[in-house]
Automatic annotation (TrEMBL):
Keywords: Flavoprotein, FMN, mRNA processing, NAD, NADP, Oxidoreductase, tRNA processing
Catalytic activity field: 5,6-dihydrouridine(17) in tRNA + NADP(+) = uridine(17) in tRNA + NADPH + H(+); a 5,6-dihydrouridine in mRNA + NAD(+) = a uridine in mRNA + NADH + H(+); 5,6-dihydrouridine(16) in tRNA + NADP(+) = uridine(16) in tRNA + NADPH + H(+); a 5,6-dihydrouridine in mRNA + NADP(+) = a uridine in mRNA + NADPH + H(+)
UniProt-recorded name of the protein: tRNA-dihydrouridine(16/17) synthase [NAD(P)(+)]
Protein function: Catalyzes the synthesis of dihydrouridine, a modified base found in the D-loop of most tRNAs. Specifically modifies U47 in cytoplasmic tRNAs. Catalyzes the synthesis of dihydrouridine in some mRNAs, thereby affecting their translation.
Provenance organism: Ophiocordyceps sinensis (strain Co18 / CGMCC 3.14243) (Yarsagumba caterpillar fungus)
């Protein structure tokens, strides 16, 4: 989760749902909720019923023949024959259908085989001792089965928790990564859930190592719909209250919640009040509805957030979410919504320094780039370096590799040729293997590649390097193959960093050689004029946002989606029949209103 009160010390992550920065559903239903429990209790398997059930008298005559045949067969001295005779003549009692079924499954078992082969005295002794053992009832057998399942689930959950929330080092109490006071505070841990007891159990595991627990009620993705959590709980306000209130009463740390707006202001206000009554200390509101995602994401409704700010008690702490593309949007959002802070999700993924202040002019150093027009941003090669250095130092427990200073125009360029030769020699064997073997082979799981600290790196780098890999597809291919590196996954990312540094250096040299015209040509191709930031209504066109945020591809910058009407015009989305009919009716009504206005105006003029 990333939040800012205007000038936070450092960025953090939110619930964007990157595949790898995705929240895990904490929902294992209690044993009593299983639909199989009632079925098994009222209609248990015949094999689970006690062997002393009442006999079926109607089958007595047919069983007599079976018993006689068994007695005759007992004349044979084979252990199998003795076993069958012992089972058939057990106490001389007639067998019911259920007993015969039990006999069929017990024939050949080690216990009955030993009983038959051990002689009459041994058989009698074993029979007497067996009377002391009572077979479990259907309920007892079911409880034992569920206990085994629960034990296996708990073991798996414990392993998952230790892997995905690493507050202390394995086998010790030493602070390690998550919630480490020296580097990872303040920390909010976010959960998705639809079961209060399961949520509480998980929250208690992280409470000692965090500053608050957040309930994510805003996730609109398909996985949330299938799992019935996130934004797909908003129709069940009682459950939402129960989830938050349970944590509020039982946890030693505050509880916060994130929601999305509903169809109307009134419904959204009541939703927010319900969350606050349940005990949420901070309310984060995403100014989009649940269906606003993908090509129909559109703009967040800051006016709705301002309405909540005005209607809720003044002491309510509200964080705003949505439409924050770059650092300058933070202050605009705070002013427009009246919120106390800003949360960023996708903007933080594509520009992890979104909350960092730009250095003064003339003090950019090597990590920050500023163009001839005065606009700038943090370089992607610098941010990739920082990312990998964090992995080396904190995850792998080793000092980062020795690195040369980041390139600036005017530096020696001999290293670029050496880096390209090294990259080419590393890629050549891989191409030969693909031609020889018919394709790359996926490596098996390893402790490095299975670590969530490393498995999420590829997705993060795709966000950060989106504009670079769109132009330089060779780097994109390297990044695509990086997850197949197994134990060498960190070395693969170091190779990607080396390639990124070369590409950025080439881009900087080209910019200097052309006097900035190489980038100006890209802006001209966007349209909307050669100099401004774009004109027109931002609700109708994304061009203004694109021109405002566009930087050279070596600078971290947001990924801006087309607006729904633009996606519709490009064919990226299509209207359903119902939507087409509604649009046709709206157009017809608009034309009728226009005709009536024209007639009225004509009458007034005459």
């Amino acid at each position: 989760m990333s939040a800012s009160t205007g000038n936070p010390p450092s960025p953090a992550s939110d619930d964007a749902p990157s595949k790898a920065d995705q929240a895990r559903l904490v929902n294992i239903p209690p044993r009593a909720s299983s639909s199989d429990a009632t079925k098994r209790t009222h209609n248990p398997s015949p094999l689970s019923k006690p062997a002393t059930m009442a006999n079926d008298a109607s089958e007595e005559s047919s069983l007599t023949n079976t018993t006689s045949a068994g007695s005759a067969g007992a004349k044979h001295n084979s252990p199998a024959a003795k076993q069958l005779a012992a089972i058939n003549q057990k106490g001389g009692r007639a067998k019911s259908k259920t007993s015969r079924l039990r006999r069929a499954f017990s024939f050949g078992s080690a216990a009955d085989f030993r009983k038959a082969a051990g002689g009459e005295e041994d058989g009698v002794e074993r029979m007497e001792s067996s009377k002391l053992h009572k077979e479990p009832t259907a309920d007892e057998a079911y409880d034992a089965e569920q206990a085994r399942i629960a034990e296996a689930q708990e073991a798996a959950e414990e392993k998952y928790r230790k892997t995905h929330f690493q507050a202390v080092r394995p086998g010790s109490d030493e602070a390690w990564l998550d919630g480490n006071p020296s580097m990872d505070r303040p920390l909010f841990v976010q959960f998705c859930a639809n079961d209060a007891s399961a949520l509480l159990s998980a929250a208690k595991e992280v409470a000692p190592y965090c500053d608050a627990v957040d309930v994510n009620l805003g996730c609109p993705q398909g996985i949330a719909r299938r799992g019935n959590y996130g934004a797909f709980l908003q129709e069940d306000q009682e459950l939402i209250f129960r989830l938050i209130n349970t944590l509020h009463k039982e946890l030693p740390v505050p509880v916060t919640a994130k929601i999305r707006i509903l169809e109307t202001r009134e419904k959204t206000l009541e939703y927010a009040r319900n969350v606050l009554r349940a005990g949420a200390s901070i309310l984060t509101v995403h100014g989009r509805r649940r269906e606003q995602k993908g090509h129909v994401t559109g703009l967040a409704d800051w006016a709705m957030l301002r309405f909540l700010r005005d209607e809720l008690p003044p002491d309510t702490v509200i964080f705003a979410n949505g439409n924050v593309l770059q650092g300058g949007d933070v202050e605009r959002c705070l002013e427009a919504t009246g919120a106390d802070g800003v949360m960023s999700a996708e903007g933080n993924l594509s520009d992890p320094a979104i909350f960092a202040k730009a250095p003064p002019v003339g003090q950019e150093g090597r990590e920050y780039w500023r163009g001839k027009d005065g606009k700038g941003g943090w370089r992607v090669d610098a941010m990739t370096r920082r990312y990998l250095d964090i992995l080396h130092k904190y995850v792998l427990g080793a000092e980062p590799p020795s690195r040369r200073p980041l390139f600036q125009p005017g530096d020696d360029t001999a290293w670029m040729e050496e880096s390209e030769r090294a990259s080419g020699s590393a890629e050549e064997p891989a191409r030969k293997r693909r031609r020889k073997d018919g394709g790359p082979k996926k490596s098996g799981p390893s402790s490095a590649s299975s670590s969530p600290n490393l498995s999420a790196v590829q997705a993060h780098l795709f966000h950060l390097l989106r504009h670079l890999v769109t132009r330089h597809t060779d780097v994109r291919d390297m990044l695509t193959r990086s997850c197949r590196g197994g134990g060498e996954i960190v070395a693969a990312y170091e190779g990607i960093l080396a390639a990124v540094e070369v590409k950025v250096a080439e881009g900087l040299l080209e910019y200097e050689r052309t006097g900035g015209k190489s980038f100006e040509g890209e802006l001209d191709a966007l349209g909307g004029g050669a100099a401004g930031d774009g004109d027109g209504d931002e609700a109708e066109s994304s061009l203004g946002a694109v021109r405002k945020c566009r930087r050279p591809w070596w600078v971290a910058q947001p990924i801006i989606r087309p607006l729904p009407n633009e996606a519709l015009a490009k064919g990226a989305i299509t209207l359903s029949k119902k939507e087409k009919m509604a649009a046709a009716r709206a157009l017809e009504e608009e034309e009728q209103e226009g005709g009536e206005r024209d007639e009225m105006a004509h009458g007034l003029n005459s």
